[in-house]
TrEMBL record:
This is Uncharacterized protein. Keywords: Metal-binding, Zinc, Zinc-finger. Coiled coil: none annotated. Signal peptide: none annotated. One of its GO terms (molecular function) is zinc ion binding.
Length: 320
């Protein structure tokens, strides 16, 4: 598991009966402070981004070279090829070579197989672990019992391919796979890069520590990606003891009902952030103002993208 390079005393895990686990700041911080940095415990490049990005470092490269065995994954250099072979490709190469045609959502089956393989080698979690950062996937919330019929059918459609990625000793416990699938849906992150017209999804990943950051429609932090590395950075002044929050989607300025419906459908909770409570209590903008806010959302996202890019550039220059 990847260890954060940022001092862990910047944030700590707290647990409550209403919100479960969350992160709170241990001190006050100004905007732009990186309070958490992490590499994923498992990740896969999206199917439509293969051949454009390196399957290991997730950096865009014009001189990618495909694996000569499976002719599916690509790397920008020998170092990345060796790294990915040790990470997962040693187990996946033969399967990728024989799967033709490649099914839709192949990357989802790959991600699940990586998580299942990791979990099979991990010790079961204990009650004491619940007040600490998670170290295994089974410590993450899965909500698998709440999965809709559509999502259950999607899981069933993945089983045939999923079984081909797993070894015989791992295949012995398929009962836990649905829970793993639910954990992926609830805790998975869309890994992003800067495209021509803004941020684009390039991969899916599971980050154990970052999964502890809860949602707010008026967040005090934002995610920044540099390849596969994730950073959680403050976007406003924060106080000691304040909860660290991010937005689970970009449409935070949509009407309350739309935001609530999305969060309930995808993440199985009702948002009770200050913004939602105020709007539910009658302070929500009228339809005309809401439409105007939607029109400004693109400009807001572009500004946030520029800020994130500037922060990354600043870190790179300072490290030289």
């Amino acid at each position: 598991m990847a260890v954060s390079a940022i001092p862990m005393e910047y944030v700590r895990v707290v647990k409550s009966a209403t919100c479960g686990r969350s992160l709170v700041f241990t001190s006050k911080f100004a905007p732009g402070q990186c309070i958490l940095e992490e590499l994923p415990c498992a990740y896969t490049l999206l199917d439509n981004k293969r051949g454009l990005y390196c399957d290991f470092c997730l950096k865009q490269c014009s001189t990618l070279k495909k694996c000569t065995r499976c002719n599916c994954v690509s790397y920008c250099n020998k170092s990345c090829q060796i790294g990915d072979w040790a990470r997962c490709h040693k187990q996946e190469c033969k399967t990728l070579k024989k799967i033709h045609p490649r099914p839709p959502d192949l990357h989802v089956a790959q991600l699940l197989s990586q998580l299942i393989r990791k979990q099979s080698k991990s010790a079961p979690c204990t009650q004491e672990d619940e007040d600490c950062f998670p170290t295994t996937v089974d410590q993450l919330e899965s909500n698998h019992e709440k999965l809709s019929d559509t999502k259950r059918n999607h899981f069933e459609s993945l089983l045939c391919v999923l079984k081909q990625f797993l070894e015989e000793d791992v295949l012995a416990e398929p009962s836990s796979w649905l829970k793993m699938y639910g954990a992926t849906l609830c805790n998975g992150f869309s890994i992003m890069d800067y495209g021509l017209y803004g941020l684009i999804d390039i991969a899916n990943g599971v980050y154990l520590r970052a999964s502890m950051v809860n949602h707010s429609c008026d967040p005090n932090c934002a995610l920044v990606f540099d390849g596969r590395k994730l950073q959680v950075r403050t976007v406003k002044d924060v106080k000691e003891g304040e909860e660290c929050t991010i937005s689970y989607f970009t449409a935070v300025n949509y009407p309350t009902k739309e935001r609530q419906a999305f969060l309930d459908h995808v993440h199985y909770f009702t948002c009770k952030c200050v913004k939602c409570i105020e709007e539910i209590n009658g302070l929500e903008p009228d339809a005309g103002l809401a439409e105007e806010i939607r029109g400004l959302e693109k400009s807001k996202e572009e500004i946030e993208m520029q800020i994130q890019f500037a922060l990354i550039t600043k870190d790179i220059l300072c490290s030289q």
